[in-house]
UniProtKB/TrEMBL annotation:
InterPro entries: RmlC-like_jellyroll, RmlC_Cupin_sf, UCP019307_cupin, YjiB-like. It comes from the Bacteria. PANTHER family: BLR7373 PROTEIN, CUPIN TYPE-1 DOMAIN-CONTAINING PROTEIN. This is Cupin.
Length: 166
């Protein structure tokens, strides 16, 4: 089964969530390997996105102003809201990945009991964490403007993904 790419344009601020001019990228059906957590960790690392954690997505709106984030779903399924409190809710499940541009809000709305992700960031970057607070928009927009485009897409490497969409 081939990976299907889908994008979401979340380019307008929502409350205290700045969002991004860069589209969020959804990768459906990346892999169905038995040990999917390790498969995502190896894939991300090979493409310059060292894995940093295994955990579900926080159940409150948050975003990172200093780095992009990749998620690889290795168990279960969830509904994730992107872009702030009025943003779209997307279904993701085992084998899917998501590339969240710096500044794009995200939170888990509901999930299966076994829902888990691998999280990764471009090599050399550690995420900050901001909540939906309108008073911080000017500060975080300055941070986001300094975030470089990664050298490779976390899923597709040197082809497709951010190489054609960003």
């Amino acid at each position: 089964m081939a990976t299907e790419l889908e994008t979401l344009a979340l380019n307008q601020a929502s409350g205290g969530v700045p969002n991004s001019a860069l589209p969020l990228v959804l990768y459906h059906h990346v892999s169905h390997e038995e040990n999917l957590a390790e498969a995502f960790e190896h894939l991300f690392a090979r493409n310059g996105w060292p894995p940093r954690w295994r955990y579900p997505v926080f159940t409150y709106t948050h975003f990172h102003s200093n780095t992009h984030e990749a998620l690889g779903v290795f168990a279960g399924s969830a509904k994730i809201q992107f872009g702030g409190e009025a943003g779209p809710v997307v279904d993701i499940s085992r084998g899917d990945a998501v590339l969240i541009p710096a500044g794009v809000g995200h939170k888990q709305i509901e999930a299966s009991e076994d829902f888990m992700c691998v999280g990764a960031y471009p090599d050399g970057f550690s995420p900050d964490k901001y909540l939906d607070q309108p008073g911080q928009l000017a500060e975080v927009k300055e941070n986001i403007a300094k975030v470089p485009r990664p050298g490779k897409d976390p899923v597709t490497g040197s082809r497709e993904g951010i190489n054609t969409l960003w």
